[in-house]
């Protein structure tokens, strides 16, 4: 019988420079998906609550007061607290700073980057994590290449053109399941993807959970991503 996490960290401190001018007056997670009337973080909180999360810690940074004001005024489906780094701690240090404010240090927890818009079963990912006795599990996505691809035969003849094919490589999808012990493995400051994750990988304690076929996933990095997310919303009912 698996114990599914009921707490989560959302990393919402990025400046979102590639999303300007949308991020001139708001942090990246506060950018609205066109046609929804809701910022990215609103979609994330709804998803987390639907997956059984009751408590979330939001790590704020750039224009933190805008995000905090929205959280205070919005009707939220779960309990939310915010933290703001008084000095830059790096990605790993910031994650640890937020995780230390979760309500139950002895229980597993989810984390997600604040610019990810996705829908899949976190409970299934948590079960995958538990079955492998992992300390940390990363969701893995296979995004589409934004260019058309060309197939050739052994003699160099072009045999086909494929518009925006799936990447042959899996990438870190920015959604995680962490065991309670993971928090203390994070650096006080610095980047956990250069320290903690490689160490866990060497020790075979880092797992990768491929997103299920048909699961929706998009990182909102540019204005083009916003436009395409709105189009996909209309065509797929995401």
TrEMBL record:
Domain of life: Bacteria
Family matches, as InterPro entries: Mannose-1P_guanyltransferase (IPR050486), NTP_transferase_dom (IPR005835), Nucleotide-diphossugar_trans (IPR029044)
Record-linked Pfam families: NTP_transferase
Boundaries of every Nucleotidyl transferase domain copy: 8-233
Protein name: Guanyltransferase
């Amino acid at each position: 019988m698996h114990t599914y996490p009921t707490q989560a960290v959302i990393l919402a401190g990025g400046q979102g420079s590639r999303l300007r001018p949308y991020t001139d007056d708001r942090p990246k997670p506060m950018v609205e998906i066109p046609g929804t009337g809701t910022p990215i973080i609103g979609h994330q909180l709804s998803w987390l609550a639907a997956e059984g999360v009751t408590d979330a810690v939001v790590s704020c940074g750039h224009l933190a007061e805008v995000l905090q004001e929205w959280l205070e005024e919005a009707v939220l489906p779960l309990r939310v607290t915010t933290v703001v780094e008084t000095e830059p701690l790096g990605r790993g240090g910031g994650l640890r700073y937020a995780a230390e404010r979760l309500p139950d240090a002895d229980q597993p927890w989810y984390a997600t980057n604040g610019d990810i818009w996705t829908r899949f079963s976190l409970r299934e990912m948590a079960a995958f994590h538990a079955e492998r006795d992992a300390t940390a599990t990363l969701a893995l996505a296979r995004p589409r290449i934004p260019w058309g691809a060309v197939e050739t035969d052994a003699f160099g003849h072009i045999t086909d053109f494929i518009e925006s094919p799936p990447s042959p490589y899996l990438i870190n999808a920015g959604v995680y399941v962490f065991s309670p012990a993971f928090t203390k493995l994070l650096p006080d400051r610095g980047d956990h993807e250069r320290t903690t994750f490689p160490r866990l990988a060497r020790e075979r304690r880092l797992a990768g959970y491929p997103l299920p076929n048909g699961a929706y996933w998009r990182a909102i990095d540019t204005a083009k991503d916003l436009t395409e997310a709105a189009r996909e919303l209309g065509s797929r009912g995401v």
